[in-house]
Amino acid sequence: MSARIYLDANVFIDAFESDDIPITRGRFVLDHVRGGGAVGVISELVVAELLTKPLEMGG
To answer: How many domains are there within the chain?
Structure first.
């Protein structure tokens, strides 16, 4: 069974807002989860933090 790791909003922000850097720590962690190396766990707070900017922009 894969280990569970908690993914804070900063992991996603780092992964998706660092376009000029080919591999960031956030992307590394998400790739590890996608590859089956761990199970990623988030909370409702992470979802709320990640949706703040898109909702402010009308999306």
So the answer is: 1
Task: State pLDDT tens for residues 24-41.
Answer: 999 999 999 999 999 999
HSE-CB at 19 with a 13 A cutoff on CA atoms is 0
> By C-alpha distance, which of 15, 14, 6 is closest to 44?
6
Q: Provide the CA 21 distance to its chain's centre, in angstroms.
A: 16
Quote the strand ranges of 1-59, DSSP E.
Answer: 3-6, 38-41
Structure tokens at 58: 């009308």
What's the domain range around 40? 3-56
**Neighbouring C-beta atoms of residue 26, cutoff 10 Å:** 20
Question: The tokens 């009308």 sit on which residue?
Answer: 58
pLDDT of the residue at 59: 66
